[in-house]
Amino acid sequence: MTIDLREFNELSRKAAELMSETADVPSVLRNRLGEQHDLTHAAERMATSIETFVRELRSFDASSEPAVTDSYTNPY
Amino acid sequence: MQLPEADLEYLIRTLSDARSRATELAVSLGSRLGSEHRLTELANTAASNIETTLRDIRNAATGESAAGTGLSDLQSALRTGTQPVAVVKETLTSPPPPTISFAASAGLDGEHWLSVLVDELLAQARTSGGITFERVERMLQQRKDEFLRDFLTARRMYRTYPRLFPEIADETRPLTTPSTI
Fold first, then answer.
1. Interchain pair A72, B169: CB under 8 A
2. From CA A27, how far away is CA A32, in angstroms rounded?
């Protein structure tokens, strides 16, 4: 399977949407429960991991990646 | 927990959608770049953290709801001198168990996702005395996410241990190639 750059850009767009739609979750929990609440910490970890994912996705050069094949090739 | 019902509903809906999106992204990246690629792992980490946050919020909400219902029932019972309503309702309105399961009547395997979903919906409707469109949507989304996770795991297993799945390997092998295994 070859990497389709347009499809990859679509994945990047979806990831950015994911980050945008969850951006206010930590602040909602922080305002309601306080900064030290376990749920607030969990939401902040979640937001950080999404941000890291989106940042890496944006800086990723899809054209330099080797293709990955889905089909199994019999080695024998 | 001091979360208003509106906030709770918003958080659960937002995180349910986000979990679905993150899982789909992880599956898409895994199929293009491989399951061991850093981007796939980051997507899986994000999906896992969303899942954890969603589960914690649900657990907190469920615990509070259950505790609140029990206390109000007891207070009501003390005021009126009767038994809590929930106890009476449960014993009087519980429907008899169905003689024929949904899976059997629909000709589905008992482990089919639709059968599991219907059972969960019926159980939810019985225990809470009703069900909303939002809850049905969330439960369907959970089934979909579980399916995607299982699919990802199965594909990873097949790629890592293809010889454990000879029937699939036979299907993907060209017909003109003689089998030498």
1. yes
2. 8
Q: Would you put residue B174 in left (φ > 0), alpha (ψ -120 to 50) or beta? A: beta
What's the pLDDT score for residue B173?
56
Q: Is the pLDDT of residue B162 over 60?
A: yes
CB of A5 less than 8 A from some CB of B? no
Q: Do A22 and B42 touch (CB under 8 A)?
A: no
Does the pLDDT of residue A16 top 90, yes or no?
yes
Query: What are the residue ranges of helices labelled H in chain B?
Result: 5-33, 38-80, 85-93, 102-106, 113-128, 133-160, 166-172
Q: Give the Cα separation of B34 and B178 in Å (integer).
A: 29
CB contact under 8 A, A39 and B60: yes
Kindly provide the ipTM of the predicted complex, given to two decimals. 0.81
> Hey, what amino acid is at B60?
A
State the pTM of this model: 0.55
User: Would you state the pLDDT for residue B42?
Assistant: 93
Mean pLDDT of B58-64: 73
| Encoded amino acid at B81, one letter | G
Other CB atoms within 10 A of residue B98 CB: 10
| CA distances in angstroms from A56 to A44, A61, B43, listed in the order given | 18, 10, 10
Distance (Å, whole) CA A70 – CA B161: 14
Residues A23, B136, B22, CA angle at the centre, nearest 5°? Answer: 35
